[in-house]
Amino acid sequence: MNYEEVMKLALERGFYFPSCEVYSDANAGFWEYGPSGVGLKNKFLELWRRELIRRDGMMEIDGSQIMSKSVFEASGHLGNFADPIIKCTKCNSTFRADRTIAEIANIEIPESADLDEFDYAIKENKIQCPKCKGDFSSTKKFNMMFKVGIGPQEEEAYLRPETCQSIFVDFPRLFKTMRGKLPLGIAQVGKSFRNEIAPRQSLLRLREFYQAEIEVFCNPNRLNEVEKFTEIENTIIRVQTDAEPVTMTCKEALESGTVPNKFVAYYLGILTEFYEKTGIDVTKSRFRKLGDKEKAFYAEVAFDFEVETTIGWLELVACNYRSDYDLSSHANKSKEKFEVMDNDEKVLPHVFEISMGIDRSLYTILEHSLKNDEEHERMVLSLKPYLSPVHVGILSLVKKDGLKEKTDEIFLNIKRKFDAFLDHSGAIGRRYRRLDEIGAPFAITVDHQTLEDNTVTIRKRDSMEQSRVDISKIDSILLESVAFP
RNA sequence: GCAGUUAUAGUACAGUCUGGUUAGUACUCGUGCUUGCCAAGUACGUGACCCGGGUUCAAAUCCCGGUAACUGCACCA
């Protein structure tokens, strides 16, 4: 299904919708999750915890969203997370100063250069607006971080532009108190904030968005000593270094040198296995190796995990080998020690990061799962049962003759164990269709026979097949069917 | 941020050009009846002109300004 169909479903069925929509000054780039969206998100994160955090023995933290100025001085975000921009005084178009100068005058000025340098180059080369030939204003820095003022003095602090900085600054304490041993994965789920110039396409480019980030701290001298590698050596991944993605096993990726070491290959493998279990079609995925110009300022090697959707390739996860960039920066700035012992060796750990965009992942799951079943004239959201916001609909065939009471009784017995949805009203077919659209894998219907022999029918979402089971079996059937893999 | 397009119920659309009665339709949603396993029928009901200003006796409709969404460009650590 395409973006429009997913959007319609999201609005009609409570997956997500614009923030503050009743007010006309609502800003672009902010969206909220409704009940169905929260259900899906929570279950997605539970799967993430199972498949990555627990599988690899990582620890999870929950840090502050507002962080002090020093953090971002050290991380480089105050210096580098800003683009030099110039604005045309005539038509108001905004351009990147470095790129415009490179394009027109063929002069390369690094983006981190002094602003004077850009102004000088623009003046010397008489560079004008490519659109209207107007003159440019002087160069300014546009920083994508939101600044906030703390306390009555409004002291300078920032909303985090990525969740991982808490992981870096917390690393010394966590390693000491939680009996850390390299390699050590530390994870965090939470919101990040970026003042995007042009937010677009609902969940796909937000100003306030969810990330699930993992930072794996490792000994850079032991990147090929990964025992767990055998678990994923035959897992198939798709890697793109040139024009087209190539399908290969993790072992082949390692041996061909496509992926630099066992350590990175292992995480690309378990990440792919995770996404396969979300129901995203991983044959439409790729790890795209980024060139030097595309990489973030802190990354040494970078792979973007991208998935093909109806609106093109979508970046869901950034995998960056950040080396010791972050820990040494924070060590220098804070004067704290970040080295740790790895057996007898004292090392400043390197970091491999798996930075997942949750909102984009949820969109992709919805797009890949939503099907138009033309034969039965219905939309079906074929979510994996363990990701569905509603596990089971509990329906009475009709309200009268005591069926309602019997249905209520069944609902009462299972509503704390499963995400169950009770519905008595309207035609039975309509109620099935509604459940199909929010991805409920099962519907249990109470009919007249139920009153005689204590059996109900269970309907499966995808096949629409029904079977009769004893009420006493409902628990165990559901337990097995909606369990995480 | 630039350009173009658009903005009417939960959703999709009509009406706007040519200002004028109670803003219409479909689906959805709620209640009743009916039926009794896949969006049926039937009756009733809830629900909307993006925001602000201007023109006018009168503005959903015309004008100006904002905001948002879509498309393209630019941007995307």
Give a brief rundown of this model.
This protein is α+β, with helices and mostly antiparallel strands and 485 residues long.
Kindly report the spatial arrangement of strands forming the biggest sheet: 3-10-11-19-16-15-14-12-13
Proportion of residues in helical segments: 25-40%
The number of E-state strands comes to: 26
- What low-confidence regions span 5 or more consecutive residues with pLDDT below 50? none
Strand content: 25-35%
Q: Round the mean pLDDT to the nearest integer and report it.
A: 90
* Overall body shape: globular
> Termini separation (Å)?
26 Å
**Nearest-angstrom radius of gyration?**
26 Å
Helix-strand makeup class: alpha+beta
Name of the CATH class of the largest domain = Alpha Beta
Count of structural domains? 3
CATH topology of the largest domain: BirA Bifunctional Protein, domain 2
Number of helices: 16
- The CATH H-level superfamily of the largest domain is Bira Bifunctional Protein, Domain 2
Q: What's the architecture of the largest domain in CATH terms?
A: 2-Layer Sandwich
Q: What profile does the largest beta sheet have? A: 9 strands, mixed
